[in-house]
Amino acid sequence: MLKLARHITLRQLQVFEAVARLRNFSRAGEELFLTQSTVSTQIKNLSDTIGFALVEQIGKEVHLTEAGKLLHNTCREIFGTLDNVEMALADLQGLKRGSLKLAAITTAKYFAPEVLGHFSQLYPDIVLSLTIQNRNTILQRLKNNMDDLYILGHNPPAEMDIHSQAFAPNPLYVMASADHPLAKQKTRLSLEELAEQPLIMREAGSGIRSVMETLFESNGLKPNIRMTFDNNEAIKHAVIGQLGISVLSLHSILLEGKSGPVGIVDTEQFPINRSWHVVYPKGKELSVVAKAFLEFLHEEGQRLSQQLQDLAESIAPRSRNPIKRR
Ligand code: PGA
């Protein structure tokens, strides 16, 4: 250990961390403003000092060896700690400077940028980043401790060792083009009828898809999947183009509202009431900025809940389609 501390430089670890994260020498070089050959030399020197190969390059793909994986985890801890020190120092100066890395599931794109905008009005010097991916990818990032906080569209898996707090509702509705007969129909669609409709589904790994699969399976139904998209906006456009109907979060029509081109299909067992959760691994030392954002998110949660409630009430009477408060 002492030998490593004496011979390894932080810069080498920074280069290695970028290569391990991006799995690519030239992208790591671009991120750190280094040439590809400097990156290769740094990695080679680091491997020589450690006495183990850290990466294997097969074609264009960079893979981590066992030693590389070990070192990558350590790098994350070292740089995470340094980030926290930087932010704590900034906070000591009363500046609230620092950074916030947020990772959120796809539907969060309909509100997270706005929430970040409000946060940044309070703390204009904080550098913000937002990664939007599907549920499985976000859970993987959470396992790898890649971000400060994670936003999930419904309960996190029970077996994960995490802190989790609900902050606003995230109900799922059946949606069709506003001109579609089902969007105008007065009688409720049964689940059997829903399964027979040409459905536009999200990709495997999506939280919405897994909720839908569970719903159909537990009712012994096989849905008629017409097509699969990995993008809620593409699904909305396909619904408007009457390629089929779909199930999406109410957030996805927040901007257009009731008079937009997407309508709600009153369906048995819908809305499916879920809640937004903000999550982080147990034992993670939250930065000052992350703590401030957590608190802020709970205030914003009230505003979001109200917005959704108003929209839900405008599309269907409260008695018929209530969305549950968190
Ligand atoms: P997904 O999550 O992107 O993983 O489907 C969206 C949601 O749960 O609202």
Secondary structure tally: strands: 12
Low-confidence stretches: none
Helix proportion range = 40-55%
Q: What is the N-to-C succession of helices and strands?
A: HHHHEEHEHEHEEEHHEHEHEEEH
| Helix-and-strand structural type | alpha/beta
Q: What distance lies between the first and last C-alpha atoms, to the nearest angstrom?
A: 49 Å
Bound molecules: 2-phosphoglycolic acid
Mean pLDDT value: 90
- How many helices? 12
Oligomer state of the chains in this structure: single chain
The biggest beta sheet, please? 5 strands, mixed
Q: What is the strand content?
A: 15-25%
Give the radius of gyration.
Answer: 23 Å
What is the general shape? elongated
**Main β-sheet, spatial strand arrangement:** 4-3-5-12-6
Molecular structure report:
By secondary structure, this protein is α/β, with parallel strands linked by helices. Helix content is 45%, strand content 20%. Strand 8, helix 10 and strand 9 form a beta-alpha-beta unit. The longest helix has 28 residues. The protein starts with a helix and ends in an 11-residue tail after the last helix. The mean pLDDT is 90. The structure holds 2-phosphoglycolic acid. The site of 2-phosphoglycolic acid has 13 residues, from helix 10.
